[in-house]
Write a structure and sequence with these properties.
Blueprint: E1 20-31, E2 34-45, E3 49-53, H1 60-67, E4 75-80, H2 88-91, E5 94-97, H3 109-117, H4 126-132, H5 148-158, E6 166-170, H6 178-193, E7 197-202, H7 205-211, E8 214-219, E9 222-228, H8 229-236, E10 239-244, E11 254-260, E12 263-268, H9 271-281, E13 286-292, H10 295-304
Parallel strand pairs: 3-7, 3-8, 5-6, 6-7
Antiparallel strand pairs: 1-2, 1-4, 8-9, 10-12, 10-13, 11-12
Length: 305
């Protein structure tokens, strides 16, 4: 029942003396009665490729928004290159792809790139940038006529127009097919290998594994873990065992148990051992099913551990 992780690239972890390019200190952000961020601390150092991993609604996008100055903190402090992220000086060296991007539908792709490039003193060459992201053949197309995946590739390409030192990519591969996703991964990896710093959000552990060395797990507006890919994989590598039984004996290794619609659902890191212990106990059961959990379930288990 074990899950074999994908091989992670051997990125060099930034030394502890490297410049802190983005920092959140005791950051809380509330929307009315909802707490989106709950006292988060995070340092991102120059040369890192950090994966922010968590279920939908975990607070990843809100964290990106306060780090980039798009939202104010309710309490706590954010910095970009030692500056307030709400000032032009703080945002001068960053590129951002938000989770949702609105593009002016009547402008052509090349016009959108030119518009963004006009905000920077030494932008990337437009044609070279479009070619790098597989958009060269769409330069004269109005953005309103692009597919969802093409719009997403353009949104990611725009984050690199100003030759940033640090890019924030919020769910960058949403809506992309497998081939386009792999091309984008290569572009992100190349930027990092050239010395760029990346903060990447995703709820796909596999995507984070392909790119990141350091993974920060966020759930419920809090940082649950900040460690290597291998360590995080061990934390969330959980199986769900579902069965019908009047009761369950005390079995070691159970993380969580719940009952719905007459079935018992058990989260465990060793489903084989759980089933062996269940059979040995002699407790009658039926309808046994074993499957991997969703990351949502795994994060909830981690949050309640």
């Amino acid at each position: 029942m074990s899950h074999q992780p994908l091989a992670a690239p051997e990125h060099t972890t930034a030394p502890p003396t490297a410049e802190v390019v983005a920092r959140a200190t005791a950051v809380t952000r509330r929307y009315g009665d909802t707490t989106a961020l709950d006292g988060i601390d995070l340092d991102v150092r120059a040369g890192e490729l950090v994966g922010l991993l968590g279920p939908n609604g975990a607070g990843k996008s809100t964290l990106i928004n306060v780090l980039t100055g798009l939202r104010r903190t309710t309490s706590g402090r954010c910095e970009l290159f030692g500056q307030d992220p709400r000032t032009p000086a703080g945002r001068r060296h960053i590129g951002v792809t938000p989770q949702e991007t609105g593009l002016p539908e009547t402008l052509r792709v090349r016009e959108v790139v030119d518009f963004v490039a006009a905000h920077y003193p030494a932008p990337e060459d437009r044609d070279a940038l479009l070619d790098r992201f597989g958009l060269a053949g769409l330069a004269n197309r109005q953005t309103g006529g692009l597919s969802g995946g093409q719009k997403r590739r353009l949104a990611v390409a725009l984050a690199f127009v100003g030759r940033p030192r640090l890019v924030f990519l919020d769910e960058p591969t949403t809506g992309l097919d497998v081939e386009a996703r792999h091309v984008l991964w290569e572009r992100i990896r190349a930027f990092h290998e050239d010395g760029g710093t990346v903060v990447l959000t995703s709820h796909y552990l596999e995507e984070i594994e392909v790119l990141a060395k350091r993974v920060v797990v966020v759930s419920g507006g809090r940082v649950l873990a900040d460690d290597s890919v291998a360590a995080i994989r061990g934390m969330v590598d959980v199986q769900r065992v579902s069965l019908v039984a009047a009761s369950l004996p005390p079995v070691p290794g159970v993380i969580r148990t719940e009952r719905t619609d007459g079935r018992t659902h058990v989260l465990t890191r060793d489903a084989d051992q759980f089933v062996r212990d269940l059979v040995t106990s002699g407790v009658p059961f039926s309808g046994l099913e074993v499957r991997p959990t969703t990351l949502e379930e795994a994060f909830l288990a981690l949050a309640s551990a």
